[in-house]
Amino acid sequence: MVFFSAFFVYFYWNCVILSILAVLIIVSRQTDPGYKIAWIIPILIFPVFGWLVYLLCGGNRLSARMRRKMQGMDRKMIEVLEQDCKAESLSGFGMDAVIQSRYLERYAHCPAYTNTDTRYFPLGDDAFPVMLEELRHAKRYIFLEYFIIAPGIFWDSVLEILKEKHAAGVDVRIIYDDVGCLPTLPMRYDRKLEAETGIPCCSFNRFKPVLSIRMNNRDHRKFCIIDGHTAFTGGINLADEYINAKPRYGHWKDSAIQVKGAAAWSMTVMFLTMWEYIREVEEDYDRFRAPAPPAGAEPGGNHFVQPYTDNPLDNEAVGETVYLNLINKAQNYVYIMTPYLIVSDSVNTALCNAAKAGVDVRIITPHVPDKRLVFELTRAHYQPLLEAGVQIFEYTPGFVHAKNFAVDDRYGTVGSINLDYRSMFLHFEDGVWLCNDPTVLEIKADFLATQARSQAVTLEQCRGHSWPRKFLRSILRVVAPLV
């Protein structure tokens, strides 16, 4: 220590120089301003090790090998789905719809489909029996991709069907996120399950107890895909709290959507590209295509459905852009359900501007938190929104986990994307964008029914908090992108 103390001054100033370089790199990057500020402050306060933490955890830098694998996912999506792209032919739905659809085709490589029906489930309890019934009807393959899998009524019921189908020759595959399942499944559960049942299973981005950028990127998607013609997604994971079979944080309010028809193929391709990425294999996509329905039997209607996915490593915030477009194009109302309200400056400004322009903007968040700090951070974002005229409600019976938008009785989205930094910038996510679909009215009706069971948050309540709590919330808002 005595020897080292003679060199401490040189060591300290070298760290200061490295911290200044890190700040310059952060400022020059095309990322959210809030994310930049959240990193700049701790780096300048702790110059000795702040730059090192940013180097390890502060970005989405990839090795050349990982970049090639990611680019392979995009190339495959384009190669397989490009023939389905038809945004320019949707002009009958209005230019706003065409512009949004065109964006998803170009940057998420996900087409829009007109020959698809959807079914909305206001609760995981409602989706559970329908999922089981559809799984029992599988004839060719079943693909599951979930952030959380936990033993219990839900997963055990699904697994029993998977074993039967696998024994009957159905191609069954499972992907789960290793960090999402860290508290629910034993280590190397994928190997254990595959050895015991023969069902191919793999975990995404295996957890390693080291500081690493890659640990930030999780697979938060939720897919249940049957034979390429039926798929489910939404907020529900394969665990009992999502169907209220295991009480946690009061009543669990979640949602899901069933996609039946051509659009399910797009979700199948999303799963297969992830499977190729994890297992480092190549698939023959043509053999997974669902056969064309008999003439006159295909779904119809004057609406279209566009499933989409968001890759956090392609520098394109697809999930946030979809939400921003829905808010900015709203003329009458925007109804939002989200478990977390930790919004970027862009989304905050869009919500405030819409409310100031007379759009009826309403948001439902939980009243019973699942994470105390994150709940406090959600509430820290209330005041500026309320001051602009946004109405905020907290679901008093328990926890809201749904991620839904309903706009003007015309547009909507259901998926896995929370209104927080992790979902919009760090996680692999998915959603289903709807235009003129009758399901939008069901999402709206569910919102209003949920609002009736919620308490309004007032501006006076936010202003009436003690100064220590206000100070804490100010700090939390600054570091929100790092939470």
UniProtKB/TrEMBL annotation:
Q: Which residues form the PLD phosphodiesterase domain?
A: 215-242, 396-423
Quote any Pfam family the record assigns. PLDc_N
- Primary subcellular site in the record, as a coarse category: membrane
List where the protein spans the membrane. Answer: 7-27, 39-59
What is the annotated localization of this protein?
Cell membrane
Q: Which GO terms describe its biological process?
A: cardiolipin biosynthetic process
Q: Which GO terms describe its molecular function?
A: cardiolipin synthase activity
Q: Which CDD domains match?
A: PLDc_SMU_988_like_1 (cd09154), PLDc_SMU_988_like_2 (cd09160)
Q: Give the membrane topology, semicolon-separated if more than one.
A: Multi-pass membrane protein
EC no. given is 2.7.8.-
GO cellular component terms given for this protein = plasma membrane
Q: What are the UniProt keywords, alphabetically? A: Cell membrane, Lipid biosynthesis, Lipid metabolism, Membrane, Phospholipid biosynthesis, Phospholipid metabolism, Repeat, Transferase, Transmembrane, Transmembrane helix
The enzyme class is transferase
Check the record and name the InterPro entries matching this protein.
Answer: Cardiolipin_synthase, CLS_N, PLD-like_dom, PLipase_D/transphosphatidylase
Q: Which NCBIfam families match?
A: bac_cardiolipin
Could you identify this protein by its name? Cardiolipin synthase
Q: Per the UniProt entry, what species is this protein from, by scientific name? A: Lawsonibacter hominis
Gene label: cls
